[in-house]
Amino acid sequence: MTSLATPEVPTEAPVAESSRRISLADIARAHDVRFLLATFVDMTGKPCAKLVPVEAADELEHGAMGFAGYAAGLMGQKPQDPDLIAVPDLASFTPVPFIKEGLAIIHCDPHVDGQPWPYAPRVVLKNTLSRLAEKGMQAKVGAEVEYFLVTKNDDGTLSTADSKDDSPRPCYDARGVTRMYDHLTSISDAMNSLGWGNYANDHEDAAGQFEQNFNYADALTTADRVVSLRYILNILAGQRGMTATFMPKPFTDRTGTGLHFHLSLWSGAEALFPAEGADDGGRGLGLSGLAYSFIAGILDHAPALQAFLAPTVNSYKRSGATTSSSGATWSPRKASFGGNDRTHMIRVPDNKRIELRSGDGSANPYLAIATAIAAGLDGVEKSLDPGQPSGPGESKPNAHLLPATLLHAVEALRKDPVILASLSGDPAIGSYYADAKEEEFLSWHNQVSDWEIRTYLTSI
Questions:
Q1: Any idea where the domains of the chain sit in the sequence?
Q2: Which of 281, 308, 425, 441 is 20 to 30 A removed from 314 (C-alpha atoms)?
Q3: How far apart are CA 169 and CA 254, in angstroms?
Q4: pLDDT in tens, 225-255
Q5: CA 324, 369, 283: angle at the middle one, nearest 5?
Q6: CB-CB contact of 43 with 367 (8 Å)
Q7: Average pLDDT of 285-301?
């Protein structure tokens, strides 16, 4: 199947002359698309869109689709600021007839006054990739999208959508997968119809938790696909009376939801992470010096990175947990790296990639990937050395502790000039994000919880 990352137009498409550039309207009509969801995300990852009929595709393509940026969400705008103009990226065209016949998603880069808006997450990632390209490198990324399927009870509590899915250790349970067969296969069919290469669908570690995998791609394509997949999962689960949630820790006693990224650097068709020959400096993982420096950069900036990899109050209920009903949290507590060992922040499953495991389901994929690459690139530019890999379940005494709360992560971000300036090269954007996340933390902190009532009501 042809990947829809490079749409093809059949010969009967309305192309007036062979030299004419294929337009968005051409692509849409060639795929029987009647409406386009012109989509971007704000800095929290919320998908924002306008539904555009194909008859207005030319207007969309030529910058006539405006959004009130302040109303859209966390986008670096005030009510008096000019419109965000959604400029579609034709390579991201994604038909979704399995949701609505004739519908497609098109990812857009917000512009203001004719220039890419530097606060827009997709623009942030493209700016980071441009910096990488200046050094003759490209990034390829795979993503593991985990989620829970739940229903909301009348009293506001959550229940597992599958009432029979109640084991304390349900990971890989064939019966749980089979009971959710219709949902899982509908998502698999959707991904494969788009050319994403779905290769596995499994029950994860917690009751009600699933993961559905697709092939890695260039960094921007993968980030777009994570956003599209979240939307697809939400809509198709909703059609079956369920809620697909990416909330990091919806249940206190269960494993939380991660968003792990598999990262690698390339120069054209050459993979840059494998060591030449068998020598990797005696560390035994088969990685090149560049790969070790990339790892060192991520570890060096790990506390600040968590503001993007784990960007919500709830994130730290996951990363701070010491156990779960299954016996493990699968969430790192320190900035360590090692071999094929899932207790580390960075796992090295083979010599072609690294797995960054400290991200969770609330992460904005554009910002998470952009800041991780920026951290790794800083390590490469400074020739940092991560030292010897840690052994199974071990970490070095001097390894950074990951932040205990969102507020700790914000404080780490403010103290890290490299990561603070990694959003489109402007530390003011990093400060804007940090201020918003501090406000989010304090908004939660100012709410009186049931725990406080139980603990303090008659304690004195």
A1: 24-117, 128-451
A2: 425
A3: 10
A4: 999 999 999 999 999 999 999 999 999 999 9
A5: 75
A6: yes
A7: 97
What is the rounded distance in angstroms from the CA atom of residue 242 to the CA atom of residue 151? Answer: 5
CA distance 364 to 238: 22
| Domain 128-451 listed as CATH 3.30.590.10 | yes
Structure tokens at 273: 């992470």
Distances (CA, A) of 399 to 24, 285, 355, 393, 396: 50, 19, 18, 13, 5
Give the angle subtended at the CA of 271 by the CAs of 394 and 402, to the nearest 5°. Answer: 30
75 close to 93: Cβ distance less than 8 angstroms:
no
Q: Is the pTM of this model over 0.85?
A: yes
pLDDT digits (tens, 9 = 90+) for 158-196: 999 999 999 999 999 999 999 999 999 999 999 999 999
- Alpha helices (H) in 53-180, listed in sequence order: 57-61, 69-72, 121-134, 174-179
> What share of the chain in percent tops pLDDT 70?
95
Structure tokens at 364: 């904005």
Tokens of 267: 């120069």
Of the candidates 125, 81, 89, the residue with the CA atom closest to the CA atom of residue 108: 89
Under the banding of pLDDT at 50, 70 and 90, the label for residue 21 is confident
DSSP string, 294-323: HHHHHHHTHHHHHHHHS-STTHHHHHT-S-
| Per-residue pLDDT at 374 exceeds 80 | yes
CATH superfamily of 24-117: Glutamine synthetase, N-terminal domain (3.10.20.70)
Match 């600040």 to its residue by tokens: 304
